[in-house]
Structure formats: structure tokens, C-alpha cells
């Protein structure tokens, strides 16, 4: 414990002098004994939205704490461009690459080219089908599973559910696996309606749909909305219909806005399950650093999700993501892909 | 002879008959569809796109087009959240800022098109991208909500004021308690105002004249440029009203591109061409077009139809409406817009 505090202090001093973690450099393995000569690249497919913004900030923090240079290449959902950007990173002579999202088909060959060029690569939430590239994952399956376990704990194993789902979106598909499993294991759960849309602004479009669904199925008492924009939309509809005492919403993901929505008086949104995107960003960098230092991180690095209930938020008077990190250590830091020589960013 | 009368009848009333048929179908097929509350949901779900569609109708009238309305709406959404949550201003200030922003964007669009001769689609397309980017700059791409961390250990303390949220959430009593939401009332008021402006005033008729023959209108002394700029300003202001209502309903500043808002409202305005065989942009048609899409989506959602079938049906309706407008009307000989 003391050692960790000392490390933080050392790290903070290092940062204060603008040399970023140099204080630790002597016991760090190569190439991190000279971190200023190390460059890593983050090649992104998705970047718009709170989750991706927070992920990026996590990557930046951890890169800064290590003292390495970070290059961010953002393809803005252009699959071909993302593959080109990997080649660009290879040409720049970076030492490590994080591939963030993307399509297997377009990234597989590009990732192989990077590996062939002797560059260490990790991939977040995209399967590039390469044994030498570890996968960083926030377990979407567990995200769905934990939310549903809470729903069963609160409502018993028989209830009438509305389910918000749009097929073909990878994380939603993985969360759907948990839903199908739970439904099968609990015959008392009936799915009265499935709806969902990604029409932008999503919350508004989902609210319109949810209004119709609740009108058509007044017996729904649980809504499983495993994406926070969905949950927001359902909550708007529930409030408008005045059903907030009768319906419970279980979701996934969390943000400051979600926290305030969950904490509104008599809010129907009772629980969500989330991994901290900033933590996922840090884990991505740490896993890459371990790999570059020649350590084995395994094929998969899973960042475990955390259950966040309305009661917990109210009891601890949590107002935003920073409060949540402070009150919920397992949310603020995942004990994944760590090493003595890797400083943990944060206060 | 009777064939021609049938055709005329089809052109004039075909769409309205289709609308009534659809309502009857869903009343029987979808549980809970036929109720006053259900009718209000339809109105509510189309209120925001309807308001945007009325604005785009004005630009269509002068033979223009405004692709920036969706982005104006989401910019107004972000601006209202920014001024209340981060700058801690009142609801009134937020609304005024949004309306001014909408008018200003319209003015710039108009000037680009009229003075700098940039084609309307290109000018407003550029404006759309500009706004989508601009609205994200102040918050570095984050959504705005009370309690969000600002730089240097401070937290956004402002809240959406109750007066502002009232705009999106309050419901007036009408026979049934708490039935009609404010956005629906605003939608109907704007529809009435734009209808009256376009079809009853001299200004409206001059705008139609500009739309059908700009040169002729200019030769008889119409200040064409001013009317065109005015049309874009109306479109910008209505779009910002749509954004304000969206913000009031969501209660937060959500990052969104507004592309779907744009597409849905343009679809409503185009479907409106076909209503009553008008074969030209008109406010009444736009409202019916918006309702048509709204009823379809509501009914299909109630029947558990997945989202992609809804897009498919929306597209089919639009295509049928365009056939009504362009093919049947040209056969009638009266001629469409072109």
C-alpha cells in the first residue's frame, strides 16, 4: 500500500517536471528504460460519443504516465482508411499499436503486416484473428449477465419484459447472448416486446417506440435496455406515461448524465452495469506495454464490469463519474495487466 | 371521361384515403392503437420532425433546399444545454440564444446562396458539417449533463431549469387529464402560422412565384434575394425550435448528428407534395406527410415490427408519394413543380 503511494508520488513528481514517469525508469525493462524514445499509436475506428472520448482519455493518461509518445490516428468509421492508418503507423516507425474497434475483414491483413514489421499490437473490441495479438475486452456478455441477475434478484424469476435490441451491432449481439441464456434458464420470464432503433438522437427515437410498446403491452414491468442511450429513451417514455413506479429499467454503460437520470426521484432506472471506458483505455496501453517488454499477457485481457445500483448511487450521494470512481474502487481501477514498473495514473 | 375523373379523384384524395385506411387497419390489428392517448403519442413523435419539415417546406417553396436543419436542431440542443448547465443562464436566455443561432445560420445560408451563388444543396451541406463539428468543440465531443467534470477540478453546477423542461414535458388537460404535450401545441401553432403565411399573405404568394419562375418574379419587381434569405432564416429558426423541444424532452445535451431528423423531415415535406394533389410544397401537406409517417411507425412498433422494416416502409411511402406528385400530376396536364 505504502509502496503504491510512493509510486504515485514519484509519478506525480515526474509529471510535474514534465519528464513523465522518468523517476521509475531505472527499474523498467527495455524499451521503457528510455520511455521518451518509445512511440505508440492508437488506430481508431469509432470515436464519436462519450464512451470513446473517455476511452481516449484513459489511453492518453496511461501513455503519459509511462512517459511514451502517443499518436492518435482516427479513421472515423472508415474501415479502409483504418487499415491504411495501420500502414501509416508502420511507416512512422512506431513501436506499438493499439487497434481500437474496426472490422475483422479489413483489419486482419493490416494487423498481420504490423506484426511482420516487428511491431507489438493489441486489439480492443475487434477480433483480428491473430495469435500474436492479444484481445482487450470489456466483457459485454458479463455486462448483460450482471444486469439480468440484478433484475431477477429484484423482481423474482418471473416477470414480463420489454427488450431493447438492434441486431448486427457487435457489443449488443454479445449482450443479447446473455439475455437469450437468462430467458432460457427462467421460463417465468416472458418477452412481451422487442424494439429498438439507432436513429439519431437515439434516446428520442427509442422514447417514441417505447411509448407505443407500453401502450400495446401494459403488463410490462421490467425493461432490459442493455445500452445507456436505450435506457434513457425508455426512461423518458416511462416518465411521460407516468409508469415510473410500475416499471424497472436495467441497462448497461454509465455516464454522468446517466447517473443523474438514475438518481431522479422515483426514477425507473434502477441498475446499470458498466466498465469504466477510461480504465479500458488504460488497460489497453498497459497490455501493450507488457507485450513490448516481452511479457506474456495471454490471448485475452478482460476488464471486468461493475454493477451500479440506484440505491448505491443515492446512499453515497454520487453525482458524476469522478464521484463514482472515488466511491467504487473496482470501477476506478481494474487490477488487470499491471506490473510494478507501470505507474497507475490518477490522483 | 370517367377515367379522367377517377384519376383526378385519386390524385386529390388518394393519399388522405390511404391515411384513413391505415388508421382503420391499425385500430383493428394493433392492440391499444385506437385511443386518444395513442393519437397524442403519434402527434408527439412527429412534433419535432414536423416542425423541421415546416421550415424545409419554406425553402422548398422558393425552389431551394436546406440540408442543415438537422444539424441546426442538434446545435440548438447543445447550445441550450451549454448555456444552462455550464454558463448557468436562465431558460429564457437559452431559448433566445438558440433562436438567434437558428436565424443567424439561416442568414448565412441565404447569403451564401444568394450573394455568393453557391448552389443551395452545397451551401447547406457545408453548413451541416460545420455545425456538426462546431457543436462539439466547446465540450471536446462530450455530451452535456449536470455534474459533468469541467477542467481544473470544477463540476458543471447548472441545471436544466424547470421552465425549460416544461416545454418538452408538460401536458395540457384536454378532456383527459395531462393529455396534450407542449411540443404538439407548438407544432400545431407553427403549422398554422406557416400555412397562413404561405397561402394567405402576399409574401407567401411571392415566394411561390419565386419558386416557379425566379426571373419572372424578379422582372415584376419582387426582391428575390430578400425573400430567399428570409426562407432560409425561417427554416433555421424552426429548426432551432425543434432543437429546443428536443433538449427539453431529453433534459440533457446529447451529442447527435441530427441526420435522421433531417431525413425524416425532408421525407415528410416531400410526401406533402402529394397531399390533395398539390404537386408543390405546402404546409398542410407537410403536416399530413409527417402524420402519415408517424402513424405508420407507431402502428408497426405496436405490432412488434423490427426497425429495418420500418425504414423500408418509410421509403416505400416516399416513393409512392413521389409517383403521385410527379407522374400522375403531369398526366393530369396541370403540371407539377417542374
UniProtKB/TrEMBL annotation, chain A:
- What highest taxon heads this organism's lineage? Bacteria
Boundaries of each Periplasmic binding protein domain copy?
Answer: 40-295
In the UniProt record, does the keyword Signal occur?
yes
The subcellular location is: Periplasm
What are the entry keywords?
Signal
GO MF terms listed in the record are: carbohydrate binding
Among the entry's GO cellular component annotations, what is one? outer membrane-bounded periplasmic space
Q: Where is the signal peptide?
A: 1-25
Which residues does UniProt call coiled coil?
none
Q: In which family does this protein belong, per the annotation? A: Belongs to the bacterial solute-binding protein 2 family.
- What this protein is called in its record is LacI family transcriptional regulator
TrEMBL record, chain B:
Signal peptide from the UniProt entry:
none
Q: State the protein's name.
A: Sugar ABC transporter permease
What membrane topology does the UniProt entry give?
Multi-pass membrane protein
Its annotated compartments are:
Cell membrane
GO cellular component terms, A-Z: plasma membrane
Fetch the InterPro entries from UniProt: ABC_transp_permease
Q: Which Pfam families match?
A: BPD_transp_2
GO MF annotations in UniProt: transmembrane transporter activity
Record-annotated membrane-spanning stretches: 12-34, 40-62, 69-87, 93-114, 121-138, 179-198, 229-248, 260-277, 283-300, 312-329
Domain of life per record: Bacteria
Question: What does the UniProt keyword field contain?
Answer: Cell membrane, Membrane, Transmembrane, Transmembrane helix
Q: Which organism is it from?
A: Notoacmeibacter marinus
The UniProt entry's coiled-coil ranges are none
Amino acid at each position: 500500500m505504502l509502496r503504491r503511494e510512493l509510486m504515485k508520488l514519484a509519478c506525480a513528481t515526474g509529471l510535474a517536471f514534465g519528464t513523465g514517469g522518468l523517476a521509475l525508469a531505472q527499474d523498467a525493462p527495455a524499451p521503457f528504460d528510455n520511455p521518451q524514445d518509445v512511440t505508440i499509436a492508437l488506430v481508431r475506428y469509432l470515436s464519436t460519443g462519450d464512451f470513446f472520448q473517455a476511452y481516449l482519455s484513459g489511453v492518453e493518461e496511461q501513455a503519459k504516465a509511462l512517459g511514451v509518445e502517443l499518436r492518435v490516428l482516427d479513421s472515423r468509421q472508415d474501415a479502409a482508411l483504418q487499415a491504411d492508418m495501420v500502414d501509416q503507423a508502420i511507416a512512422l516507425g512506431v513501436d506499438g499499436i493499439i487497434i481500437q474497434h474496426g472490422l475483422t475483414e479489413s483489419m486482419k491483413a493490416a494487423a498481420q503486416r504490423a506484426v511482420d514489421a516487428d511491431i507489438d499490437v493489441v486489439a480492443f473490441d475487434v477480433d483480428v484473428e491473430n495469435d500474436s495479438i492479444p484481445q482487450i475486452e470489456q466483457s459485454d456478455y458479463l455486462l448483460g449477465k450482471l444486469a439480468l441477475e440484478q433484475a431477477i434478484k429484484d423482481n423474482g424469476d418471473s416477470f414480463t419484459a420489454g427488450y431493447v435490441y438492434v441486431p448486427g451491432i457487435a457489443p449488443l449481439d454479445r449482450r443479447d447472448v446473455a439475455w437469450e441464456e437468462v430467458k432460457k434458464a427462467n421460463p417465468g420470464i416472458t418477452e412481451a416486446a422487442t424494439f429498438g432503433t439507432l436513429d439519431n438522437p437515439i434516446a428520442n427515437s427509442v422514447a417514441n417506440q417505447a411509448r407505443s410498446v407500453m401502450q400495446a403491452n401494459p403488463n410490462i414491468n421490467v425493461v432490459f435496455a442493455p445500452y445507456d442511450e436505450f435506457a434513457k429513451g425508455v426512461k423518458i417514455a416511462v416518465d411521460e406515461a407516468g409508469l415510473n413506479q410500475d416499471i424497472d429499467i436495467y441497462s448497461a454503460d454509465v455516464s454522468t448524465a446517466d447517473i443523474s437520470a438514475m438518481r431522479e426521484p422515483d426514477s425507473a432506472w434502477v441498475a446499470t452495469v458498466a466498465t469504466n471506458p477510461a480504465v479500458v483505455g488504460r488497460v489497453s496501453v498497459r497490455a501493450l506495454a507488457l507485450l513490448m517488454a516481452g511479457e506474456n499477457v495471454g490471448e485475452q485481457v478482460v476488464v471486468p464490469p461493475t454493477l451500479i445500483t440506484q440505491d448505491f448511487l443515492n446512499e453515497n450521494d454520487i453525482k458524476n463519474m469522478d464521484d463514482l470512481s472515488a466511491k467504487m474502487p473496482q470501477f476506478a481501477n481494474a487490477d488487470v495487466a499491471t506490473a510494478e514498473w507501470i505507474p497507475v495514473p490518477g490522483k | 371521361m370517367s377515367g379522367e375523373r377517377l384519376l383526378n379523384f385519386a390524385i386529390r384524395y388518394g393519399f388522405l384515403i390511404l391515411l384513413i385506411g391505415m388508421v382503420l387497419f391499425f385500430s383493428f390489428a394493433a392492440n391499444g392503437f385506437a385511443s386518444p392517448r395513442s393519437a397524442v403519442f403519434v402527434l408527439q413523435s412527429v412534433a419535432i420532425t414536423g416542425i423541421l419539415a415546416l421550415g424545409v417546406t419554406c425553402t422548398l417553396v422558393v425552389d431551394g433546399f436546406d440540408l442543415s436543419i438537422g444539424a441546426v436542431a442538434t446545435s440548438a440542443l447543445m447550445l441550450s444545454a451549454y448555456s444552462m448547465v455550464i454558463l448557468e443562464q436562465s431558460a429564457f436566455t437559452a431559448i433566445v440564444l438558440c433562436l438567434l443561432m437558428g436565424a443567424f445560420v439561416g442568414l448565412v445560408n441565404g447569403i451564401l446562396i444568394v450573394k455568393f451563388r453557391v448552389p443551395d444543396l452545397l451551401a447547406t451541406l457545408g453548413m451541416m458539417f460545420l455545425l456538426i463539428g462546431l457543436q462539439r468543440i466547446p465540450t471536446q465531443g462530450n455530451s452535456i449533463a449536470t455534474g459533468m467534470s469541467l477542467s481544473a477540478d470544477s463540476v458543471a453546477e447548472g441545471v436544466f431549469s424547470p421552465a425549460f423542461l416544461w416545454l418538452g414535458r408538460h401536458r395540457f388537460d384536454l378532456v383527459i387529464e395531462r393529455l396534450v404535450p407542449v411540443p404538439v401545441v407548438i407544432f400545431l401553432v407553427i403549422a398554422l402560422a406557416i400555412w397562413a403565411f404561405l397561402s394567405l399573405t402576399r409574401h407567401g404568394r411571392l415566394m411561390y412565384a419565386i419558386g416557379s419562375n425566379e426571373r419572372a418574379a424578379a422582372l415584376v419587381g419582387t426582391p428575390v434575394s430578400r425573400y430567399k434569405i428570409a426562407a432560409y432564416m425561417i427554416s433555421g429558426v424552426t429548426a432551432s425550435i425543434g432543437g429546443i423541444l428536443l433538449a427539453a424532452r431529453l433534459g440533457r445535451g446529447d451529442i447527435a448528428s441530427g441526420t435522421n431528423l433531417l431525413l425524416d423531415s425532408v421525407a415528410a415535406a416531400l410526401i406533402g407534395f402529394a397531399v390533395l394533389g398539390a404537386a408543390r410544397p405546402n404546409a398542410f401537406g407537410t403536416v399530413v406527410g409527417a402524420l402519415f409517417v408517424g402513424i405508420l411507425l407507431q402502428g408497426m412498433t405496436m405490432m412488434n415490427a423490427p426497425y429495418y422494416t420500418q425504414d423500408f416502409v418509410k421509403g416505400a411511402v416516399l416513393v409512392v408519394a413521389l409517383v403521385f406528385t410527379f407522374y400522375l400530376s403531369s398526366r393530369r396536364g396541370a403540371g407539377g413543380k417542374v
